[in-house]
Amino acid sequence: MYELGSRRYMTPKRRFLAALYGGRVDRPAVGSATSVATVELMDEMEASFPEAHLDPSVMARLASGACEVFHMDNLMPVYSVTQEAAALGCHVNWGSSPDEMPEVRSRVCASIDDDVKMPDDFLAKPPIRVVLDAIRLLRKDYGDHVSITGKALGPWSLALSAYGVEEVLIATIDKPERLAQVLRGLKEVTLLFGRAQIEAGADSLCIPDHVTADLCRPEVYSEYLLPIHFELQQQLDCPLILHICGHSLDRLKYIAQSGMACFHYDTKVSAKDARRAAGDKISLMGGVNNPSTLLFGSPEAVAKEVHEALDAGIEMIGPECAVPLRTPNRNLKAIALAVDEYVARSEG
Ligand SMILES: [Zn+2]
Q1: Does the global pTM surpass 0.90?
Q2: C-alpha 157 to ligand 1 mean position (Å)
Q3: For 207-229, what is each residue's pLDDT tens digit?
Q4: Looking at the chain, which terminus has fewer C-beta neighbours within 10 angstroms, N or C?
């Protein structure tokens, strides 16, 4: 597979991990910290929703499509943001067809004054165990060659699931001290699940923590989450990828101080602006728009955005967030092809 003297001397795993820290690579990495599952991929891999949220072998098989079909450098087997919520006691509707995303239907706490009770057997709860078992399977089949990214929600996103968006946002104004205490408590959930995924074989972790500008001012990030994110990246023994969709330019200067290896950004921020704001303190992942380009655009339109992201110095090229389920596979395949084309052109 690897020829002596080939310009491509890195395994996908090494390329992905090197790019996470902004290091030397034989080609810019292609990958995603969030789901690349599509209905078309489910058909191709014979692994569909909702089983892919609930059965470890189906979950792992669908995840392997990222490298088998899309030629990405990493695999990420968690397709929703509901696994932790379900384990903490929220009612989750897992859906009944391949084009339906799971949804949290009930909160565990009605008021920000209530504590989220962490079950003693959290890691043994089925929605958590399925992720750990899927990572073990992927590690065995792909782990020497392809990077395996786990996913553990950050405390802000856990609070949104447990209390509901409104309750959390009101607390930023009415009860800032109580909210800080809640986030500190929920950080333990991120740590516990993150550590278990590393032990199962994940070599990087996506931390979605949706402190988007669509919901709150940038200081909410710096006051509540920056210190917690700094601790998380010190306490979890692998590179972390922070994921925040929506507008994030106004908080990127804080995110760049978090010590996170990488920030998975939304194309509501241009690649150039993201690079300028992040400087060289944090790697950037993404660059391709989901709702218009990947879902409705052509492979040529995808290639154009890939090339713009590479021109701006984005280290890891991929979708900006979990892809819409009806995204055509040809557009996801176009990402790695466009990176290869860009590199071939620049190498002459
Ligand atoms: Zn997202």
Answers
A1: yes
A2: 11
A3: 999 998 888 899 999 999 999 99
A4: C
